[in-house]
Specification:
The complex is a heterodimer of chains A (486) and B (393). Chain A has 486 residues and is mainly alpha-helical. Chain A has 23 helices and 1 strand. Chain A starts with 11 loop residues before the first strand and ends in a 10-residue tail after the last helix. Chain B has 3 domains: 75 residues, no CATH class; 133 residues, Rossmann fold, CATH 3.40.50; 114 residues, no CATH class. Chain B contains 17 helices and 15 strands. In chain B, helix 15 packs across helix 16. Classes of the chains: A mainly alpha (486), B alpha/beta (393). Strand 1 of chain A pairs antiparallel with strand 15 of chain B, so a sheet runs across the interface.
């Protein structure tokens, strides 16, 4: 018997940095785990604080533990949430029944429904068809091709997770760059294409409740704390002006930093036409899924408040399976079960902080010291969210900020409903770093973007986004009935 | 035997001129082509035997003791002649003679699961090389992983080896032979707590060097044999034709950045190229972080004059020390001079390096060395991941 079997693909790399650095990196996680636990014990052992109930102190200890683990990713985000779920009943902050009931929050099921609907769109090829159709219809010159790619990414992210859209449109963008023979790291147009992809998905992702889990999570926490909520239409109405401003600003920043340096996109036209040809005509499956998606959207807008967003989403899912448009195994790769676990735990923790009064106490300890008026509070919370999200998971930022924001709202007499978009919208905008969001990372991995291509324009976008957000909150939201002060 | 003559000097003479076996030694050892001797002070040599009665060194046996006698002086010293290991006479459970799968060289068990040298198969062997001369093995099968494990177990049980060195003559693929050795290396690591070395050919891509280290290989050699390009083309046709001198040097330099200091080595054979080339090779290799091993010529035709070789060995020690390459790993080579062994020719005692090397010969020191090697690997090796995996969701 010969022994040789094929060695697995070359899937390892040897880190050549100094050993002390590697050692420091490897010991980082256990050190952080211990530090988090030590902080938890220290807060539990702390003498009673004025304004903080014993249950609040315990909830605060659990919050700090989760904060350390969420910020540092010492544990996977969802496992940290599970830890919160374990600690809340065992420390007596909430009963086990209440804790696990919170896990069944509507937001969790809405996100589940959104995942499955997005899976249906991708699996049947409808999302790809929409992308190719937009590019074919509008992308005949370098300028219109870039603009249509940018807007198309934003548009698709209204209906699907922005990460899924980035993953879907990345191969198309790479192919366009290839046929146009754009040099990696040197072509302005190449840079612009991938910035358009990354920024488009992010900007579109904040437009509706479907672009990511942040908004449903924030709404879920709001609902648990105050009983108030948002309809699909209300949220979209609140977010769309910011989307519009950012699309305009993004387009100008892109052209300023990456002036178009090619004269024609005829070769890309051919590729897009070929893709369109290969797709053939709209299949019955695509038509049916498109119709269900459309009906679901209409139902969210018309009856979301009465029936509930999650119920409508799940009804759409059920319809897809009733008509056998999708098989369950098709769905599984698209459903991020870990995110669902994370949201459940975060909602339970946020609720515990609110019920115990810890969030109000915490707000008094932090933001209240630096902000004197509701407008300053909104500006400060938005700035913190937008900065944190460059280094942390979007959802983790919401999980951390939302309980504090609700506490601040109590103190300043701010309508707590306002705090959901104040936290959720900025936490979806990470323009600067490749690690800020998978969309950025995917674009960066193309090789067309260097770090410095993202840093300066990204920073400019962050400033514009923050200013646009604050202006929208102060001047526009009152017009649609979303006033800062009750 | 001259008073105070260091074993390393004897080794040099034995390696270059061979040893004549007296009838008493011949009766005890049989008539081997080479005899493995332990000369003391951790110096061992594989001395070719010679029929010449005027050979300067003669091996005698009395009862069960062996003596090395200098013919002209008549003085003699006790040495240990290493008999062939007992396992070599055994067969594996599949009936393959164990000696066909592995041989003992110094403290190392050299395992060669494939019998034929790839260059020999292609009709381009290195003429001075014993391995290459062996050629295809009459259709014998490649050793099974289980057989190799059996042989290693037998050798370790007998206490004749401390580490395992794999040898593969395959060179045709992109991997330089490491893919072929992978299952053997993995099996040995799974069953034994030992250091593993590999003598393979340079892979075409450096990523395979990363893979070699990740696999569990603690030390690696891409044997260049000769530094001089013309000599290499003349004597190592296969190496020059199929791989090329530059690729050897590149791969060695890259590996020196991946493996721990002092664990990447290559032989430079004496007598087949001008000594100036060997000196230049020592300098260039050490500059790249590679340990040069000055190997005794494997053919009588290439015999060199010991007095001419002494400066080369002194240079070997001084250069490796100057480059701050760890000299503790490459040791116990009966067919060549490791840098630390060459210290005697430079007139240096190298107390610290010798003490550290001695530590690793102890049970606890060996355990510590193996543990450190494992920790280093765990720190350095990681799964390759795309940028999307590093992003926050």
């Amino acid at each position: 018997m010969a022994a040789s079997g094929p060695l697995p693909a070359i899937d390892v790399e040897v880190d050549r940095r100094p050993l002390w650095r590697l050692l420091a990196e490897r010991t980082y996680r256990p050190v952080v785990l211990l530090l988090g636990f030590a902080a938890y014990l220290a807060i539990r052992a702390m003498p009673a604080q004025p304004g903080l109930s014993p249950a609040g102190q315990k909830a605060f200890a659990v919050f700090v533990l989760c904060l350390v683990y969420w910020v540092t990713s010492a544990l996977p985000l969802m496992v940290t949430s599970l830890l919160a779920m374990v600690l809340l009943p065992t420390t007596g902050v909430l009963s086990a029944r209440d804790t696990y009931a919170l896990f069944g929050n509507e937001a969790v099921f809405f996100i589940l429904g959104a995942f499955i609907l997005a899976a249906a769109l991708m699996k049947c090829g409808l999302s790809g068809r929409i992308a190719v159709t937009i590019l074919r219809r509008f992308g005949h010159t370098p300028r219109t091709l870039l603009l249509s790619l940018f807007v198309m990414n934003a548009f698709l992210s209204f209906f699907m997770s922005e990460h899924a859209v980035a993953a879907m449109t990345f191969p198309i963008t790479v192919e366009i760059a290839r046929v146009l023979r754009l040099a990696r790291g040197r072509s302005n147009y190449g840079r612009a294409l991938f910035l358009a992809m990354a920024w488009g998905t992010q900007i579109g992702g904040i437009g509706t409740l479907l672009g990511g889990g942040r908004a449903p999570l924030a709404i879920g926490m709001l609902r648990e704390a105050t009983g108030q909520t948002y309809s699909f239409g209300e949220w979209t109405l609140a977010a769309l002006p910011i989307v519009g401003v950012l699309l305009l600003a993004g387009w100008m920043v892109m052209l300023r930093f990456c002036p178009i340096d090619i004269a024609s996109v005829r070769d890309a036209d051919a590729i897009i036409a070929e893709k369109s040809l290969r797709m053939g005509r709209l299949s019955h499956r695509e038509q049916a899924i498109g119709a269900i998606m459309l009906a679901t959207l209409v139902a969210w807008i018309v009856g979301g408040e009465e029936v509930g967003l999650a119920s409508i989403a799940l009804a759409g899912v059920i319809a897809i399976f009733v008509f056998r448009l999708l098989k369950w195994p098709d769905v599984e790769p698209f459903v991020n079960w870990g995110v669902l676990l994370m949201y459940g735990g975060a909602i339970a923790l946020g609720s515990a902080l609110n019920r115990s009064g810890a969030s109000a106490w915490l707000a008094g300890l932090t933001v209240s010291r630096w902000a004197a008026t509701p407008v300053q509070v909104v500006a400060l919370v938005a700035a913190i969210g937008i900065l944190l999200t460059e280094a942390m998971s979007h959802s983790a930022v919401v999980a951390l900020l939302m309980p504090v924001a609700l506490g601040i709202a109590q103190q300043y007499g701010i309508d707590p409903r306002v705090m959901a978009p104040v936290v959720a919208l900025p936490s979806g905008l990470a323009f600067t770093l490749p690690v800020g969001t998978p969309g950025n990372a995917i674009a960066y991995s193309s090789g067309y973007l260097r770090l410095r291509d993202m840093l300066l324009p990204g920073f400019l976008m962050v400033v514009i986004a923050w200013a646009a957000f604050v202006a929208t909150a102060v001047y526009y939201w009152p017009l649609i009935g979303l006033t800062l002060v009750r | 035997m001259r008073d105070g003559e260091h074993p390393a000097r004897l080794k040099l003479e034995l390696a270059l001129h061979g040893v004549h076996l007296e009838a008493s030694a011949r009766a005890a050892l049989g008539g081997p082509a080479a005899v493995d001797l332990e000369l003391g002070d951790d110096v061992c040599v594989s001395a070719p035997t010679t029929e010449r009665r005027d050979a300067p060194l003669v091996l005698e046996a009395e009862a069960d003791r062996f003596f090395l006698r200098r013919a002209e002086a008549g003085s003699r010293r006790v040495v240990r002649a290493l008999p062939p290991p007992r396992f070599a006479a055994r067969r594996t459970s599949r009936g393959t003679p164990m000696a066909r799968i592995a041989t003992v060289r110094g403290a190392h068990l050299v395992v060669h699961p494939d019998r034929a040298c790839g260059f020999s198969v292609q009709g381009a062997p290195c003429p001075f090389c014993v391995e290459g001369a062996r050629g295809p093995n009459g259709g014998a099968e490649v050793a099974a992983v289980g057989e190799v494990v059996e042989v290693v177990r037998a050798a370790f049980a007998e206490g004749v080896a401390e580490s395992v060195c794999f040898n593969s003559a395959a060179f045709a693929g992109d991997d330089g032979g490491i893919a072929f050795l992978a299952p053997y290396v993995e099996a040995v690591r799974m069953h034994f707590d030992t250091l593993v070395a590999a003598q393979v050919h340079p892979p075409r891509s450096d990523r395979w060097i990363d893979r070699t280290y990740a696999l569990g290989v603690d030390a690696v050699s891409y044997n260049l044999e000769l530094f001089d390009p013309d000599a290499l083309t003349r004597h190592c046709v296969g190496r020059a034709r199929y791989i090329g001198r530059e690729r050897y040097l590149e791969a060695l330099a890259y590996a020196a950045g991946i493996f721990p200091s002092g664990t990447v080595w290559t032989d430079l054979v004496l007598g087949l190229e001008p000594l100036e080339s060997t000196l230049a090779g020592i300098e260039a290799l050490a500059a790249a972080g590679v340990v040069p091993v000055v190997a005794a010529p494997r053919s009588p035709a290439a015999a060199a004059d010991p007095s001419a070789v002494v400066p080369v060995l002194a240079h070997l020690y001084r250069t490796v020390r100057r480059r701050r390459i760890n000299m503790g790993w490459v040791r116990d080579l009966p067919g060549g001079f490791a840098p630390l062994e060459a210290r005697h020719f430079a007139g240096d005692d190298a107390h610290l390096a010798v003490a550290l090397q001695a530590l690793t010969r102890w049970r606890l020191g060996g355990l510590a060395a193996r543990s450190l090697a494992r920790v280093r690997r765990r720190l350095r090796v990681r799964a390759a991941e795309g940028p999307a995996e590093r992003a926050h969701g």
